[in-house]
Write a structure and sequence with these properties.
- InterPro entries: REX4_DEDDh_dom, REXO1/3/4-like, Ribonucl_H, RNaseH-like_sf, RNaseH_sf, Znf_C2H2_type.
- It holds the Pfam family RNase_T.
- Keywords: Exonuclease, Hydrolase, Metal-binding, Nuclease, Nucleus, Zinc, Zinc-finger.
- By secondary structure, the protein is of the alpha/beta class.
- The chain has 16 helices and 9 strands.
- The strands form 2 sheets. Strands 3, 4, 5, 6, 7, 8 and 9 form a 7-stranded mixed beta sheet that branches. The chain has a two-stranded antiparallel sheet with strand order 1-2.
- Helix 12 packs across helix 13.
- The longest helix has 16 residues.
- 30% of the residues are buried.
Length: 362
């Protein structure tokens, strides 16, 4: 019997290995089912040593430095890897130069960035001028500070709001007059007192100012369809901020660091902003009273770091989120190689790197 003849032992030991995450299956149909629910793509975090795909940066970090880390990857990463962006460099010297740029410094407090009126404690950066009205599509970061309302002070009311541009310049900042009485100023966190809100801007006026900035002169119809010239809104737990501001902004224009899959825990639970900044930017925030400018800068930096990743364009070049497996029959899929299955796989979230590609088309 020649070497190519059928062997029961050989058949039993055959494994079908996923091209992306390296999981192995006894049957080809099991690999196909795995690919259908895994949504592997070029946009996933991956090990710079073995190229294994991971669902999030947290799972990649565990692969490189966790208690069950891959030995070879762990050793190389410990010698030449950046513990913030998780990239690996060709020499310790290259790594040192990279770290100077990758590890950022904490920003100055809000008080150091805007003049405040000692009498009213209100500052507004002025009306939305031509500097912002004429710019192209850019991102704006927002952060709100909440005080408590209701009998037990548990109802969150927006009392302060800050917006910055991509260059960390303040576009708008104001104290906000709550629509119902404040029963808990949450002073230890917000640093706010009754005096801060005495002559604060009414919520409706705050809403109008923010929407004027975000809409960027775009019509509501186009805003809801493609966005047009409207600005992307960056933040952490944006649904909470928008709810307290009693505002709506289309989901496709939101960039939320609390809900972006690569930045979430492996069980798809959100990390705190404090953790994300320490882990991916290299400095500490919220060490005392929360500073809305500091949080705005942090989410903008996280967004730009994620957006700046240089990912390969997926198979067909189609950037929309779709399940490529729907276009193939089961028997056709089972005939494909693991690499071919990967080529038709698509992400189930929109990678932020596509924002940069959209604003700078080839």
């Amino acid at each position: 019997m020649d070497s190519d003849s059928y062997s029961p032992t050989k058949a039993l030991t055959t494994r079908y290995k996923c091209y992306a995450c390296y999981k192995q299956y006894k049957k080809k149909e099991h690999l196909v089912e795995h690919m259908k629910i895994s949504y592997h793509s070029a946009h996933e975090p991956r090990c710079a040593v073995c190229q294994k795909h991971c669902k999030s940066f947290e799972s990649l970090r565990m692969h490189l430095t966790g208690p069950l880390a891959k030995a070879n990857c762990s050793q190389i990463f410990s010698d030449r890897g950046c513990n913030l962006c998780l990239e690996v460099f060709d020499s310790p010297n290259s790594l040192d130069k990279h770290r100077e740029m990758c590890c950022l410094s904490a920003t100055a407090s809000l008080a150091a960035n805007i003049p405040t009126c000692a009498e009213s404690h209100i500052y507004i950066s002025g009306s939305v001028d031509e500097t912002y009205a004429c710019k192209g599509v850019e991102a704006v970061a927002i952060d709100c500070e909440m005080v408590g309302g209701g009998s037990d002070g548990s109802l969150s009311l927006c009392a302060r709001v800050c917006l910055i541009d991509e260059d960390e310049n303040i576009i708008f900042h104001s104290y906000v007059q709550p629509q119902i009485p404040v029963t808990n100023y949450r002073y230890e966190i917000t640093g706010l007192t009754e005096e801060h809100l005495r002559d604060a801007m009414p919520l409706k006026e705050v809403q109008d100012k923010i929407l004027e900035i975000l809409y960027n002169g775009e019509s509501i119809g186009k805003l809801r369809l493609s966005g047009g010239k409207a600005r992307l809104l960056v933040g952490h737990s944006l649904d909470h901020d928008l709810d307290c501001l009693r505002m709506f902004y289309p989901d496709h224009l939101l960039r939320d660091t609390a809900k972006y899959p690569p930045l979430m825990k492996t069980n798809l639970v959100s990390h705190s902003l404090k953790y994300l900044v320490q882990s991916y930017l290299g400095y500490d925030i919220q060490t005392g009273v929360h500073d809305p400018y500091e949080d705005c800068v942090s989410v903008m930096r996280l967004y730009k770091r994620m957006r700046g990743q240089n990912h390969q364009v997926e198979g067909s070049g189609i950037e929309s989120i779709c399940d490529g497996f729907d276009f193939w029959k089961p028997k056709e899929l089972e005939k494909m190689t693991p690499e071919e299955l990967y080529e038709i796989s698509r992400s189930n979230y929109r990678c932020w790197c596509l924002d940069l590609k959209a604003s700078n088309p080839a």
